[in-house]
Amino acid sequence: MVTHLNLDLNARVLQVFLFFNKVKGSSDSPGKITFSFVFDLKVGKGVDDMAGVEQRQNKSGGGKYFFCSGGKKKEVKKETGLGLSFTKDENFGEWYSEVVVNGEMIEYYDISGCYILRPWAISIWEIMQTFFDAEIKKMKVKNCYFPLFVSPGVLQKEKDHIEGFAPEVAWVTKSGESELEVPIAIRPTSETVMYPYYSKWIRGHRDLPLKLNQWCNVVRWEFSNPTPFIRSREFLWQEGHTAFATKEEADTEVLQILELYRCIYEEFLAIPVTKGRKSELETFAGGLYTTSVEAFIPNTGRGIQGATSHCLGQNFAKMFEINFENEKGEKGMVWQNSWAYSTRTIGVMVMVHGDDKGLVLPPKVAALQLIVIPVPYKDADTQGIFDACVATVATLSDAGIRAEADLRDNYSPGWKYSNWEMKGVPLRIEIGPRDLANNQVRAVRRDNGAKTDISRVFLVEQVKGMLDKIQQNLFDVAKQKRDACVEVLKTWEEFVTALGQKKLILAPWCDEEDVEKDVKARTKGDMGAAKSLCTPFEQPELPEGH
Ligand code: 87F
Predict the structure, then answer these.
(1) Do 389 and 256 share a structural domain?
(2) How far is Cα 66 from Cα 369, in angstroms, rounded to an integer?
(3) Whole domain around residue 169: which residue ranges?
(4) Is the CB of 168 under 6 A from ligand 1?
(5) For a pocket test of ligand 1, which of 157, 160, 189 has the largest count of ligand atoms closer than 8 A to its C-beta?
(6) Fewer CB atoms inside 10 Å of the end CB: C or N, the chain?
(7) How far apart are CA 90 and CA 83, in angstroms?
(8) DSSP letter at 86?
(9) Which tens digits make up the pLDDT trace of 271-284?
């Protein structure tokens, strides 16, 4: 195991050891290797700069993407509109934009950073929402809805933490042609909207805990490369805001929620994530500590924050006077948490699993888990094949599998294969004359292209088994790819080299704000500055030789 930070710069060594000692002795988690930290490249001018893509797509009205990019463009199957012009490895940014559009998740919109979420994307969101909503209800969280608009007065109330975010707040200044007397902000998050009412509703210990959640949209006027799902100016999320009598209850909930976020990523989206605690610098300014799940995109070499669960401590309670009287009649301040995950989850899923044929959807979140395609030949019993397709869908649907048949007569089977591959449907079933004669179907997996003939007698069990295997395989492959990018290291030279190689770095860490700023400053340049992701709760096994 890594036991010390040994940055080779002389001036640094002493400082780092000092911090290391300090952290080692902290009361937070004594004896644990809390000083290992995951770093990656910071967003900046870099590998997946998609600003250019957005401009071009907006200009072309969307839908037609055969523009040039440094002579690297490949025009494929232009006549049918099928296929992608860019490969994932050659031009990740263009590939991503094309996949989300051709896969029918996104339509570009005429306001930069805003996107239309089409039913194919929303159905994924709804499946995750159904799971998460049921889980938080088990925890006695209640849903609510607060207004979209924020008065400048309350927004100012938490000016200390809003300061850094102020440029991203969008304002309504007019109604019709007349200027509003007081401009109104559009919520970028709802602390200031909700907490004045927490102050009103919480009086005594019997009003606690107060656990509210809302499913809504928020607006943050981002300026750096807008990217569908990943960084958009308006996005969908759930935001949970809870208040407790004790810190212990708040601490427990932070981790319960984080576990649900892990579940969404790993068990629904088949994406491995790391649970951990954010650095001082990356902690939400209004909070006490921030935990997160962090995913990794091998193609960009960047980590990406998947979701956050904050313990706010009593900072907001102080600001908004959220007080209560305990059993003994003593006055106290509440302990608060807030937590959120957003439609970013869908973007991470596309980036991790998508391939050169388009989207690859994990069965658990796919609106359609299986598509049945008739493959009639000239003299074949076409009606018999169509009937078999309809019967197959009925059998599978009755068993709870999301299945449909593509019986359109204006497209060839080959065209349909490509179309459903582009949309990422996990399993395709083909039924041709030979299948009909043998009372079987042919199943083709989207994740690895494997073909299996299945007797219609065992259809449901076999299909269920295959969907489970696809789900597991997507996770295993994503984990292998991520793990292959992890570099455990100790020295500054190793750090800089690994950063340039798009690695996910696990390095000893003291968690001092100044040191993190310094690391950022010293890694600024073409490759983009290093950004800390988290101190993993579970310190991963070190590879051999370390
Ligand atoms: C942008 C503009 C204004 C992030 C912002 O993570 C304010 C903010 O407060 C802002 N961007 N944040 C932090 C959000 C913290 C917190 N809110 C509730 C969460 C979870 C859900």
Answers:
(1) no
(2) 30
(3) 106-353
(4) yes
(5) 189
(6) N
(7) 15
(8) S
(9) 999 999 999 999 99
